[in-house]
Specification:
The structure is a single chain. This protein is of the alpha/beta class. Helix content is 27%, strand content 27%. The protein has helices spanning 32-48, 61-71, 102-105, 144-163, and strands at 19-23, 51-55, 76-80, 96-100, 109-116, 120-127, 130-138, 168-175.
Amino acid sequence: HGIPETIPLSVFGLDDIQVGSWNGRGICLSDFDDRNTMRLHTIRLSRISHILCLQEVHGYMRDVLLTFQSWLPNWEIRYSPCLNSDGTCNSRAGGVLIATCPVLCAVASFEEHVLVPGRALCVSLFCKNRIFDVLNVHNHDLSAQEVKSISHFTNTLCLEIRSNPMLRLAVLIGDISIKAEGEMTHEIRHNMT
C-alpha cells in the first residue's frame, strides 16, 4: 500500500513546520534572575521552532499570557492552567502552553481544545480547508479518566486523519512518561560517604 500522501505544509506558507517542546519546571514562578534565564531559553527555542509546546509553565492565566506575549511578540499564545478542585487556577502546578509563530498566525485561524486542564491542550490551525492539530501533553499525575479522555480525543482525531490525510495532519508532543506493563522504576543512587 505504501505511505499515503499527507497535507502539503506549503498551504501554511512553509516547506516544513518545526515543533519544539520543553518542560520548563515552573517557567512563570521563577524569581527575577531565573525568570530571565527562562525568557532567554524560550526566545532561543522560538528561533528554531514555528510552534512551541511548553509544559510546567505554572502561573495565573493573565500573568502567563502577558509574560509570553512580551517574550514572543506577535505569536499566538494558548495556555491551559491546572485547576484546584473548586475550579480556580492552581498557579503552582503544571500548566501547558502552545505558542504559534507570526508566519503561521498570518495564514491560519485557531481553535483550542482543553482536554485536561493544565495537562493536555490541543490547538487546531485552520488554513485553506486544511487542519493541522498540535497536541501538547504532560502526563504527570493523570487519572485513569483523564487518560481515557485524551485517548478518546486522539483516537477520534486519528480516524479523521485516516479518512482524509490530504486535509488533516496532527502532531502529539510533550513530556510523556509511560511505563510498560510490569516495568520497574530505575533509581540512580550515589553514596556520598
